[in-house]
Every structure is written in structure tokens, then in C-alpha cells.
Specification:
Blueprint lengths: L6 H22 L7 H18 L4 H19 L4 H15 L2 H4 L8 H10 L6 E6 L5 H9 L3 E7 L2 H12 L5 E5 L12 E4 L6 H11 L5 E5 L10 E4 L7 E6 L1
Parallel strand pairs: 1-2, 1-4, 2-3, 4-5
Antiparallel strand pairs: 5-7, 6-7
């Protein structure tokens, strides 16, 4: 069962409340004469404001702003429902269970790749895992430049996993990509864990890392901090999002 504080539940409540409020305004007054589409814009703006003040992630605010106006527009254009099914399936293939994990698809930049190369051992053996490895570009590139490492990626979204799996088969570099939820994997066999996730899972990730990883192991997070835990090192990247790598020693 979804918890009340889950963003999906909160988003649904916001949509229901704002829709009821707009319906009440339309029925109870006649001074404001707006078209159905104009009322949908008012509803979207109201839902967006509420989601902003309830501190929902930025993508939820955009969804609230556009959801009902887009629904009204598509109904007016008489677009076939088949296209909505196709669109939904495409999103499911690309993003997987983002509604549950609250981790969207982020692709690491070349700057992040180069910075990670400088952090990994050049001679001794080590093991590395990318949590939510996307299309596998990062582990592929690192495996090519650090032949002394064992590189794994874990991905749960169907299409990115399929792409990364095909790349690993036809690539000369030696690395493996696994399907599934990284919460179900044992971290004890890894020396370095790289995560480019979202603010939501960082605190439970820290608990899992401390419980399972060996002393001296390294956790690297792209962009997102662990609440209340100061990293021992941070590296600012000159990429498109001006992101930062945060490093914690276990």
C-alpha cells in the first residue's frame, strides 16, 4: 500500500482538491466567464503553486502545471487513445518504476567520467558499481580506461538496461550490467560505489552502505548530498549542470 506521504499520493490529492475547487467556483459564481481551457490553466497554476509550497520535486510541479490543460487540449483535438497508451509504454520502458523509486533517469556527463578516472586506483585491483547505470556509458568508459578494475552496473529501467546489456556484449571492455533493484544487491564486494540518484534515497543509501561496505571503501554521489553527513571531499564539475561529486570514506 502506498504511504500517505508518497509523492504519487500527494500529487493525486492536489489534483483532486484543485479540481473540486475549480468546479465549485464555476458552479457557484457567474461573474468570471472563462472557457474550459482557461479554467484548466487556472487549475494547473493552482496545483503547481500548492505543489511548490509543499516542496514537491520540480518535475512534479511541471506535471501539475500541465496535466489538466494538456488533457483538455488532447480531448479537444480528438487524439486517439492509442497514442496515450504508446506514450505511457514508452515512458515505462525508459524510466521504469520512477513513480516508486523517485529516481529519474540521469546520465553522467563526460566531466564526471573523467573525474572518476582520476579517483580510481591505477595499479591495484578494485571493484566498482554504478547504481542506476542507465545506458551503461559510464561503466563502459571506465572499464576501458582502468583494466585493473571489476566494473558492474545495476539498472531497473527496461530500455536503458537493454541498451547497456547490448553494449556490454559487443564491447571489447570487460564489464557486467545487472537487471534489478540495487537495494536488493549486496554492497560488501565493492570498493567503490557511484550513485547519481535523487535527494530521496540518499539517507537510506547511507545506512545500507555503512552496514554492508568494507572499511576504507568509497561512496561517490553525483550532485546529491547525504543529509547531515559531511563528505570528506567534493569535486566541482565543469559540465552542463555544474554538478559536484561528493565523496565519503566508509
Amino acid at each position: 500500500m502506498l504511504k500517505l506521504q508518497h509523492p504519487v499520493v500527494i500529487a493525486l490529492l492536489i489534483q483532486i482538491i484543485t479540481l473540486l475547487l475549480i468546479c465549485f467556483l464555476i458552479v457557484s459564481q457567474s461573474a468570471i466567464a472563462l472557457s474550459l481551457f482557461e479554467w484548466s490553466l487556472v487549475q494547473g497554476l493552482l496545483a503547481g503553486l500548492i505543489s511548490y509550497y509543499t516542496r514537491m520535486p520540480a518535475w512534479w510541479i511541471l506535471i501539475h502545471l500541465a496535466f489538466i490543460p494538456l488533457a483538455i487540449t488532447t480531448l479537444a483535438l480528438n487524439i486517439s487513445s492509442t497514442w496515450f497508451l504508446v506514450f505511457f509504454l514508452c515512458l515505462l520502458l525508459i524510466y521504469g518504476k520512477t513513480y516508486k523509486t523517485q529516481v529519474p533517469l540521469y546520465l553522467s556527463s563526460k566531466c564526471a567520467n573523467h573525474a572518476l578516472e582520476t579517483l580510481l586506483p591505477e595499479q591495484e585491483q578494485f571493484s566498482f558499481v554504478d547504481l542506476g547505470s542507465g545506458c551503461g556509458g559510464l561503466v563502459k568508459n571506465l572499464a576501458s580506461s582502468r583494466r585493473n578494475g571489476i566494473f558492474h552496473g545495476i539498472e531497473s529501467a527496461p530500455l536503458p538496461f537493454l541498451i547497456s546489456k547490448l553494449r556490454s556484449i559487443f564491447c571489447a571492455s570487460s564489464y557486467k550490467v545487472f537487471w534489478g533493484d540495487f537495494w536488493e544487491y549486496d554492497f560488501s564486494k565493492y570498493d567503490v560505489i557511484y550513485a547519481y540518484l535523487s535527494p530521496v534515497p540518499m539517507e537510506p543509501l547511507w545506512h545500507k552502505v555503512n552496514k554492508e561496505m568494507r572499511p576504507g571503501s568509497l561512496l561517490i554521489s553525483n550532485t546529491f548530498m547525504i543529509p547531515g553527513i559531511t563528505p570528506y571531499k567534493s569535486i566541482k564539475l565543469d559540465d552542463f549542470s555544474k554538478s559536484t561529486l561528493y565523496l565519503w570514506k566508509i
